[in-house]
Amino acid sequence: MEIRPAVLDDVDSAVVLHKLFAPYLVVTGTQLRHRLRDRIVPPGAGTFAAVADGEVVGWATTGLIGGSDPLDGQLRLIVDPAYRGRGAGGELLELAHEELRRAGAVSARVFADPDAAAWASRWGYRQTRLVHYAEMDPQKAPELPPVPDGLRLAPLDSLDPRQVYAADEVAQRTKPGDANITTRPYEDWLAGVWELPGMVLDLSVAVLDGDQVVAFTLGNGDHHKVWSQMTATLPDRRGLGLAKLVKCAALHGAAEAGVVGMHTANYDGNSPMIAVNHWLGYTRTATHKVLITHL
């Protein structure tokens, strides 16, 4: 078995690996090819593969949590069950940690299958909370709630990105999570969120009051499956049903575009968003432990 930085020829096999053993995620060839083709690799953005007989049997990706202070890292690690216990996971994890350390991260976060928590504790990982994955068929979305007077819906690709950035800056500081989010420079956010290949801005939706974004939902994927990665409402507009409105509108848009699966995840304890997703029709598919270690 070979453990090494991933290359473009690994992509198709890596996508199959995720479909087989992490179907609750949305991992596309477009996303992975972008990571490996980008000549200017963002600090902390590593991609590593374990390969046996020409097939990818393990995969790890890393990244920095934008706007975190102190700087936190995150990673994803998956190994084909048939190849576990042979050291591949440990080698991939060490490579991931080294990548994050070089970028200046002081901690690493991973969402782990509960069965892997004891293994991860060898590297000092401790559980902070749970995260629940959920999915649904957008064709089964409920009827769109009424839009409150004075507000309007708009797809994100029709907006100036600075309108969404202003709302996301507030959202990131007030969302549930373990990282302390302060601020993220606009150019960094533009490259790392808005312009990232795989973002489905046409299927992402905002509620506006005049020109101000007061709620939004943001997704990525390939118009076959979409990951709902962020939904937020400005603090002074919460309790008005705007998260339910934008997520429902995004589901309707996805259904019209032919999307067959919508996927998302919520921290345990984020009762308002879990309730919204339940109303929309999402069903839970997996629960992982959120683990953190100091680097």
UniProtKB/TrEMBL annotation:
Domain N-acetyltransferase: 1-148, 154-295
Family matches, as SUPFAM superfamilies: Acyl-CoA N-acyltransferases (Nat)
InterPro entries assigned to the protein according to its UniProt record, in alphabetical order: Acyl_CoA_acyltransferase, Bact_Acetyltransf, GNAT_dom
Entry-linked CDD domains: NAT_SF (cd04301)
Keywords associated with the record: Acyltransferase, Transferase
Highest taxon above the source species: Bacteria
Signal sequence extent: none
Single GO term (MF): acyltransferase activity, transferring groups other than amino-acyl groups
Matching Pfam families: Acetyltransf_1
Protein name: Putative N-acetyltransferase YhbS
Species per Swiss-Prot/TrEMBL record: Kribbella amoyensis
Lineage: Bacteria, Bacillati, Actinomycetota, Actinomycetes, Propionibacteriales
